[in-house]
């Protein structure tokens, strides 16, 4: 037997034994955790709806804003709802599929209903950054490049889900921002308007 095959065989056997000994490695009750990649994609793409023209190369946002926003939100609603449902099912083994789907839909509807308010709060945060940072040349510069605004944006989304006691997803969101910016804002923190980090 060559070295590679021998090493792979030993590692496979040892890893498989570890899987069997520790339930943390395997999903509970044949249920899965929410997809970190899917949640991050929602965060990234929702940013283009909150700040159209900055983060998505789509001229439809300028020419047909209603179409752009409606089309993007419709898709993002379904994708976020799916991840919320997965999170609820994983965290609550006694929850049935139908109940999880209804609860995920209720939470997602509330989340999307609050997006215009989140957008307004973020505009106040942009103003706070512009007023408080003498190096800021424009509000556009803050929106397009300041890591603090990105961390606040993600926090404001995550906080909506945190208040609804959605498991896993708020932390996935804020840890994504933490990893990108070095700024760690707990999704449970209470932050008012006109905030800049």
UniProtKB/TrEMBL annotation:
<dbReference type="InterPro" id="IPR011004">
    <property type="entry name" value="Trimer_LpxA-like_sf"/>
</dbReference>
<protein>
    <submittedName>
        <fullName>Uncharacterized protein</fullName>
    </submittedName>
</protein>
<dbReference type="InterPro" id="IPR042122">
    <property type="entry name" value="Ser_AcTrfase_N_sf"/>
</dbReference>
């Amino acid at each position: 037997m060559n070295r590679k095959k021998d090493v792979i065989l030993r590692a496979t056997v040892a890893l498989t034994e570890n899987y069997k000994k520790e339930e943390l490695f395997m999903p509970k009750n044949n249920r899965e955790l929410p997809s970190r990649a899917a949640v991050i994609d929602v965060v990234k793409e929702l940013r283009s709806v909150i700040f159209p023209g900055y983060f998505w190369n789509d001229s439809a946002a300028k020419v047909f804003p209603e179409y752009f926003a409606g089309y993007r939100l419709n898709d993002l609603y379904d994708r976020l709802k799916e991840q919320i449902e997965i999170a609820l099912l994983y965290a609550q083994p006694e929850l049935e599929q139908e109940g999880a789907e209804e609860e995920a839909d209720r939470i997602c509807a509330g989340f999307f209903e609050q997006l215009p308010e989140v957008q307004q709060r973020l505009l106040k945060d942009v103003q706070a950054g512009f007023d408080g940072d003498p190096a800021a040349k424009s509000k556009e510069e803050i929106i397009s490049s300041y890591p603090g605004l990105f961390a606040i944006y993600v926090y404001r989304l995550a906080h909506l889900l945190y208040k609804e006691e959605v498991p896993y997803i708020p932390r996935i969101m804020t840890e994504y921002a933490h990893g990108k910016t070095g700024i760690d804002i707990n999704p449970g923190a209470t932050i008012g308007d006109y905030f800049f980090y």
